[in-house]
Fold:
Amino acid sequence: MSDIEVEVRAEVDPIKPTHEGECLSLSARSTLKFVIGHHQGDRTWHLRIAGNSGKGMWFDGWASAADIEKIVKGATELTAKSFHSLHPGRSINTGGFVLAALKELGLIRANAENKRLHEHVPTTTFAQAVAAHAGQAQSSSADAAPGKPSQRKGRGAH
Structure:
């Protein structure tokens, strides 16, 4: 090895995306894309907001399921502000986008008494919510798979 040789390493994200989903923002004015990932080293789950069809900015970094569950577990009055601690000093839109994604996943739901508040779905963990959502997504994509025989009646072979 020469004195001038420099070791160059590509920065590798240790979180491998495993599932993508979409949901409406809380205002229903834009569609959000979120990604679920699994950390290859410590085997933990993570969530990040990856897209927004609207003009609002957001932070696209990963939030750990453990940090999310600390906020959510047993909570009955969750708001977008509840999630600002996941990415301190970053875009305040991110908290609302995370809230919308967690609602889509089924980890939280609208509070029955006040629709502006959200609550934890009792006994549901982040991993359970992800598994259920991923299963639904696979069922939906299988139903819409190209080449699937038509279920329409009255159409003959051409």
Q: What stands out?
A: The radius of gyration is 20 Å. DSSP finds three helices and six strands in the chain. The beta strands are 15-24, 31-39, 45-52, 63-64, 108-110, 118-120. The longest strand covers residues 15-24.
